[in-house]
Amino acid sequence: MTEQGNEFAFYTVLDTLCPMHVVLNDTGHVVHAGPTFAKVFPDAPPQGRRFLELLELKRPKLGQSMAELRRAAGGKLHFRLRAEPRTDFKGVLVALPKAGGLGPGGGAIVNLSFGISVMEAVRDFALTSADFAATDLAIEMLYLIEAKSAAMEASRKLNLRLQGAKIAAEEQAFTDTLTGLKNRRALQPVLDRLMESERDFVLMNLDLDYFKSVNDRLGHAAGDHVLQRVARRMVSETRGEDTIIRTGGDEFVLIFAGLTDRHRVAEIAGRLIARLERPIAFGDEECRVSASIGASLSRDYARIDPEQMMKDADLALYAAKDQGRGRHVIYDPALRMT
Amino acid sequence: MHGLINRAVERFARDTYGREMWRGITQRLDLGFTEFEAMLTYDDKITQDVLGELAVSLNKPLTEVLEDIGTYLVSHPGLEALRRLLRFGGTDFVEFLHSLNDLPGRVRLAVPELALPVLELEDHARDFYSLTVGPLPGGQVAFGPVMMGLLRAMADDYGALVFLEHKGRRAGHEIIEVRLLETAFASGRAFDLGAHLR
User: Is A136 a catalytic site residue?
Assistant: First the structure.
């Protein structure tokens, strides 16, 4: 076999075993390129061009000469394509002996791989599985990426649906089914959120007056009807961001975020009572209730303690009830003196 | 049975025969839901009941329904992802056939809980193979007919011409004979490795 024939057979072996290789001569010019490496240069074949003008050696930092490149033999090399799309390559170099070996004397063989950029490379250079060595794990990796993304997508959808169900369940757990207002369980989370937001707020404890007599006189159906109408009226007298909680049978807590003005609080309380005092029709009957309100304002406290505010609003509520029905009182430390 | 398998049955019924038909099945079986979650696991009996009810509704033998499901999995445009994953098995139909041995393992890599039956390909002569299909873990459902439909559709996908024959069941294992008449009978469908990135 001639020396040229030998070399040809050698390149054929390399093309099969590592289709991403390049053979360089002693001046660093490409004398042979594996079929996949050639696909990276669809416009002009890499043969005859200087290797380091095609790819830039990113790491390790070495000079531009062939002698210096040969010194990087055996270690891991990081290259980047100088032209667009500036693909990254990993590589390893084998220095060829000056004389007596296979391939160009004093040259080198560089075997390359796309490494982590294999996904983009497959797209950018229109590669198929035939472009990878049969032993190369690239195809398995692409398979895994696709399979895992599909599985992740299915899991993500499941999570979204579960999250939606969880929110609905929580919403239900915090909702009073009779009136559609929030229930007692919602009180602590609402207060916690307010404390976190560091906004001032007003707590209003509201008890219905004469509700028991409606129940006694007309039965529970009438009582339920009254509670539903009362709830609707409270909702229409307050803003969307206010919270109305039914804490017990005819007891409510209203929370007004961002409210600091005592006169406004008194005004709202007065309006609520007036609105609730309007008669409520139940069949042919007419139900009349009223409300007593005790309120406390967070701005009156040096350190806001919702528990203390609840107690003080309760104290104000009792003071309101003492004055008769349909009254409202805003907590004042003087109340404790009496 | 894994949700993905149940979901495949559901999608087949919905996409082929319509939502109404599928809703009817879930109501008659009193499932309490109309959609399977792909990533949850269901009682094996549910899968059997759904398949049984599907066969009754369609007035078809169960094996025929299973074969249709196999074909559907590869050929329906909505399940392109699955076709792609199968095409990773090889560059031509013969390579694909040989990759079937690894299929349960490949599936486990992607979804560890999804157990598929053992698949074993044997070549007897040039262009003559037999595929042994083990029992579907935890299920009474025969997987052979599904593989029949799937293989037929994959042959189309690769553009190969094949003759398939279900040779029955021996000790819980089903045997499918595959005769390859022509590897490049038609041009088949394209498989672009980077397609999902575009």
Answer: no
Q: Which long-range contacts (CB under 8 A, 24 or more apart) does B183-186 make?
A: B183/B92, B183/B93, B183/B94, B183/B158, B184/B159, B184/B160, B185/B159, B185/B160, B185/B161, B186/B156, B186/B159, B186/B161
* B197 occurs within a structural domain: no
CB contact under 8 Å between A158 and B109, yes or no, is: no
Asked which of B60, B76, B101 is the last residue of a domain, the reply is B60
Same domain, A186 and A300: yes
A132 SS3 class: coil
Q: Encode pLDDT of A155-209 as tens digits.
A: 888 888 888 888 888 878 889 989 999 999 889 988 988 888 888 999 999 999 9
Query: What's the length of chain B?
Result: 198
Taking the alpha carbons at both ends of chain A, their separation in whole angstroms is: 119
- For residues A330 and A203, state if they share a domain: yes
How far apart are the C-alpha atoms of A309 and A216, rounded to whole Å? 33
Report how many Cβ contacts below 8 Å link chain A to chain B: 62
Count of structural domains within chain B: 2
Are residues B124 and B166 located together in one domain of the fold? yes
ipTM value of the model?
0.76
Question: What is the rounded CA–CA span in Å between residue A308 and residue A333?
Answer: 12
Tell me, yes or no, whether A165 and A194 share the same domain: no
Same domain, A196 and A332: yes
Between positions 134 and 163 of B, the ones with CB within 8 A of A are none
